[in-house]
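FAQ
Q: What does a multi-component entry look like?
A: The components come first, one per line:
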Amino acid sequence: MEFFGGLVSTAQPVVNAAGAGQKLRIQNLSMVFERDGESVSALEDINLDVSEGEFVCIVGPSGCGKSTLLNVLAGFLSSTKGSVTIDGEAVSGPDPRRILVFQERGVFPWLTVEGNIGFGLSKLPRAKREERIAHYVQTVRLQGFEKAYPSDLSGGMKQRLQVARALAVNPDILYLDEPFGALDSITRVIMRGELMRIWQTERRTILFVTHDIDEAVQMADRVVVLSSRPARIKDILTVDIPHPRNISSPRYLELRDELLKQIGLAYEI
Amino acid sequence: MRSIAKPRVWESFFWPVVAAALLLAVWHYSVVFTGTKVFPSPTSVQTGVGELLQKHVLWADIGDSLRRVALGFGAAVLIGIPVGLWLGWSAAANQVVNPVLQILRPISPIAWIPVAIIFFGVGDRAAIFLVFLASFFPIVLACVSGVSSVSPVLRSAGRNLGLSTPQLLRRVIFPAALPQILVGVRLALGIAWVVVVAGEMIAVDSGLGYLVIDSRNSGKRYDLVVAAMLMIGIIGLALDFSVRRVERIKSVRWGFRDAS
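Then the predicted structure of the entire assembly, as tokens:
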């Protein structure tokens, strides 16, 4: 445990290549749950700085507390210790400026595609709202499905709809909680490409939780590796490969192996 | 294999007609073979229906029964849904009210008849009150369970998109619970129709329930009794059918399928 603590401190100063202004700062964050009278530690002393426009992936063994971390960052849970600040302002609750995208069943099934995308836009005048909806229907390529209900959409389309609904309220941070985890492997690869395209045109700060190593190395600027419960930051890897990434290049494979090793997985099956 | 598959169009009409015809035949021949003088045959019921229609009492009675259901059931919907949403939302309120609700719920609305008559006297309002009571509890309980089973993910999504608590109730909790609420509403309408007939047998002197009891009391006209019973069945079916139509509306249909 002490050994990992040492790693954290050496990994700390890494700043992303874009060198843009700091967006999100997590300081000494710890989270303890009370369960059946016993206290269970979920997060332990998390420290992380994320720059504006950066794409950060958080990986770790399942059940380690990745989702808990996102829920704290999004303001749905309050931490036991430490602080989360965005643009210097402490996070105190859910806020449309930062949207959490869920793994599945996150869209409103009683609303059409348009209704879902426009859900957070009720304060806008009608014309402006419709313009915004049309724009994000385009962005996630759901043209022709504007009047469709989620039950008529595929899993991948539903996730794109969730991303569109999130983007429509113009957040500066997107938290994605294993958004492609429930999709089949082919759709997952397509969705990664779509998300990269959207990230490059919309330029939002993205924190992406996944347990898929490839997903992390293909998309992220930096990959944060968490230990098993209680989650601590084990290491932070900078992925220094320009987009679009060649996933059979030596550097890619090197980083991927490094990550697998960090997580403690053998790479021979 | 075909029993799982959708029946063909002609089959979906043909077999029900056969079943109904068989039932009528059994009824007819049972009356003929036993030689009963009291219980009517299908044909005498048919003339009974004709007689009721000619005397115009049937339409008036149907109208009275439907009006009582509309008022009692309508009030139960208007009051029951907000109350149910509130109880489902507020754990504290539910804790206070739930025991009372659980004690009142299993009491048959029929058992309320004497109480209803004390409160409202013999008349319309007593019958409407009974219908209200009968439909109120299933609606409230459906709302409570509907609200408590709303996915936490949808609640979080609503909060995240900037909704206040009243907005969350209106724009997320209510639509998310609506399919389950509709199941309760449908159940309540069925009970309301059963209860209005029972209530009319005692508390008022019009309506289909009164028609049944009056036909028996004034001259043991069992042909009219059975004719009135048939009307009660047909109208009940029509009421249920109309609520089922609502379940097909697109914004609630998601809740009535396996996939969402």
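Q: Is there any commentary attached?
A: Sometimes. For this entry: The two ends of chain A are 28 Å apart (CA to CA).
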